[in-house]
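Page 47, continued from p. 46.
Same chain as before, 125 aa.
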Amino acid sequence: MWHKFNPNPRGSSVGDCAVRAVAAATGQSWEQAYIGLAMMGYALGDMPSANRTWGAYLQKRGFKRRLVEADCSTCYTVEDFAREYPRGIYVLGCSGHVLAVVNGEWIDSWDSGAECPIYYWYKED
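Result:
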């Protein structure tokens, strides 16, 4: 089930999906996640929203990465993922979008349940 989440202090929901996803997955505020990603991006010479930047940021916080193993890369959706993983914290990388799934709910500023995840980051208990 979709849970609307937009901690952006100005209410914007364009271009900051990585910040929102990291904030939701780590329990940080939007500002904390943004600054952390900006610093990681600076260290890597890349943008805060770049896949390698937010991936490195999550990895530094104990998250691990896995590819989505689906027989059909265009028919396995975020909604399917959330149903298959009803417990835990995940950050999903889709084509051009990033979002968090927490305990079976996808956390995003819009209903991205029809998007197709390519890989995900997770944190073991």
